[in-house]
Specification:
mainly alpha; two-stranded antiparallel sheet
C-alpha cells in the first residue's frame, strides 16, 4: 500500500464516520501526543522547580518544532495533512524516547552516551529541516529553540556527574582538545596525561627531526633550536625517554644490504682417514627453561607478588594512598603507578585506580582520618 492509498483510506474512513476534517484529526492527535510528552517530562521533573521549568521549556520547544515540521511538510514539500501529522508525531515520540532512555541510564556513562548523541542528532536534524523549509525570516528562531532546549535538557542530565568517573573519549579531536591546543582553557589532571603529554612529545620529535634533516638556514629562520629547548623545560624524564626512542628509529635500516660475492675456495686437501675413536659418553644437558614466564592477561607482579582483579585494585589504591605527602597531596602520577608493575599497567586501568585512591583521600580529609600506613602494602 502506497502513501497515497493510505491517505485516501484514512480520509474515506473519516468521511464515513462523521465527516470530521483531516486538520481536526491532526490537531487532536498532536495535542494528545504533547500532553503525553508533558506528563512524562513532568514525572521526571517533579520535586525540583528547576527541573519543572526545564520540562515546560522542553514541551514548548517540542511543540514549536512539531508545528514547524508539520507546516513545512504541508506548505513547502506538498505532503498531505494526515501524512504530515503522522510524521511529526512519530519524530517527536522518537526524540522523547531517546531522552527517556538517557535518563534510564543516567549513572551508566558508557551506555548513556549513545542516547545523548541520538538526541543531539535529532534536534539538529529537526532544526535544519524546519529552518530550511520556513525560509530566512524564521531560520534563527527555528534553529535556536530546538538546540537550546536540547542543551538545557543535557545540562540537567549531566549536572550530578562525577568528572573523575566519566570515561575518556575515544575521539581524537574534540572541542576541548581544540581549545587546549590554542591555549583557550587550562588543562586539568586528565588533560595533562591524555592530551598535553602526547602533543608535547609529538612537537619535540618533529622539531628534532627537522633540525637534523632540514636546511640550517630554515632552522635558524624558524628558531627550531630555541623552540625545542623551551619544550624541554616542561618535559619530564618519561617524555625525554620516549622522544629519544622515536628519534633512534631514524637510523634503523629498512632495506637489507646485498651480501658480498663469495670467493671460490680452493679444493680441500685429502688426508688419510684416522682410525675410529671410541665415542665419549653423551652428557645429557638439563632442559632449558621456558622462554619468559608470560603472565595471563590482567595479571601483574609487584615485589614478588602476583596480583589480579580485586587484589590488584586494592594494592594499587594502597600504593597511591601511601605515596601522598604534604608536598604531593594527590600522591604519585598515573605514569609512576603504571611503572611499578610487571608488566606495566594500561593507561585506562591506572586512571581508574588513581581516581579511586583520590576519592578515598578526599573522604579521609573530610572525615579527619588518615590511613594506617602499617596496614598498607610496602
Amino acid at each position: 500500500m502506497t502513501t497515497d492509498n493510505l491517505v485516501s483510506t484514512v480520509q474515506q474512513w473519516i468521511d464515513h464516520v462523521g465527516g470530521v476534517p483531516v486538520v481536526t484529526v491532526a490537531v487532536v492527535a498532536g495535542v494528545a501526543a504533547l500532553v503525553a510528552v508533558a506528563g512524562l517530562l513532568r514525572y521526571f521533573g517533579r520535586g525540583d522547580s528547576a527541573k519543572k521549568v526545564t520540562a515546560v521549556a522542553t514541551v514548548l520547544g517540542l511543540a514549536w518544532s512539531a508545528q514547524g515540521m508539520a507546516d513545512t511538510a504541508v506548505n513547502t514539500y506538498g505532503q498531505p495533512t494526515v501524512v504530515a501529522a503522522v510524521l511529526f508525531i512519530v519524530f517527536e515520540a522518537w526524540l522523547v524516547g531517546r531522552m527517556l532512555r538517557a535518563h534510564q541510564y543516567r549513572k551508566d556513562y558508557r551506555r548513556r552516551g549513545r542516547f545523548v548523541q541520538a538526541v543531539w542528532v535529532g534536534a539538529v536534524v529537526m532544526a535544519f529541516v524546519v529552518a530550511t523549509g520556513e525560509g530566512w525570516s524564521q531560520a534563527p528562531g527555528r534553529l535556536a529553540i530546538p538546540l537550546l532546549v536540547t542543551y538545557g535538557w543535557y545540562t540537567d542530565l549531566t549536572a550530578d556527574d562525577d568528572p573523575d568517573e566519566k570515561p575518556v573519549t575515544s575521539v581524537r579531536w574534540t572541542l576541548r582538545r581544540a581549545l587546549l591546543a590554542i591555549g583557550a582553557i587550562e588543562p586539568g589532571k586528565r588533560d595533562a596525561v591524555t592530551i598535553d603529554r602526547d602533543r608535547l612529545r609529538d612537537r619535540m620529535t618533529r622539531l628534532a627531526f627537522r633540525m637534523r634533516y632540514g636546511s640550517p638556514a630554515v632552522n635558524n629562520l624558524l628558531r627550531r633550536k630555541v623552540r625545542l629547548a623551551k619544550l624541554k623545560t616542561v618535559a619530564d624524564d618519561t617524555d625525554l625517554t620516549e622522544v629519544r626512542a622515536r628519534l633512534a628509529r631514524m637510523d634503523v635500516a629498512l632495506t637489507v644490504e646485498p651480501e658480498p660475492a663469495r670467493r671460490e675456495q680452493p679444493a680441500p686437501e685429502i688426508h688419510p682417514v684416522p682410525p675410529p675413536q671410541p665415542k665419549p659418553k653423551e652428557v645429557v644437558s638439563p632442559a632449558k627453561p621456558a622462554e619468559g614466564d608470560r603472565l595471563p592477561q590482567g595479571v601483574h607482579r609487584r615485589l614478588g607478588r602476583t596480583l589480579r582483579g580485586t587484589d590488584l585494585h586494592d594494592d594499587a589504591v594502597a600504593v597511591m594512598l601511601k605515596s601522598a605527602t604534604p608536598e604531593r597531596p594527590g600522591g604519585m602520577t598515573t605514569i609512576e603507578l603504571m611503572s611499578l608493575y610487571d608488566p606495566p599497567l594500561k593507561q585506562r586501568k591506572a586512571d581508574e585506580f588513581a581516581a579511586a585512591a583520590r576519592r578515598q583521600m578526599r573522604t579521609q580529609r573530610v572525615n579527619g582520618s588518615t590511613p594506617d600506613l602499617a596496614d598498607l602494602p610496602k
